[in-house]
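so im writing up the methods section and need the ArsR family transcriptional regulator record in one place, dumping it here so i stop losing it
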Amino acid sequence: MSVDARFDESIHAPTRLRLCALLLATGTAEFSSIASLLELSEATLSKTIRNLADLGYVQTSKQASAARDDARRTTTVALTPRGSAAIDGHLAALREIAAPPGSH
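--- predicted struct ---
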């Protein structure tokens, strides 16, 4: 399957790029795990997820946690098909930029 190389300013910001790359590799991830892996505050991660969700690039779901005895729920984050296509295209564009001259 061919990917259209397209630089995406919405993804290129470092925190957004790191989050999208993580989700591309993992499929889904729990909010607290993402915050820990990317070394982000919960506030920064929440804002980043909200921005990407507004673009239709990620979706969240909440579910009861088997690891907790209280009523708190965990939040899972995943790329949408649109988000997967966007990060794939962005990474392809970066590869084109980084390719040696004459290799296009």
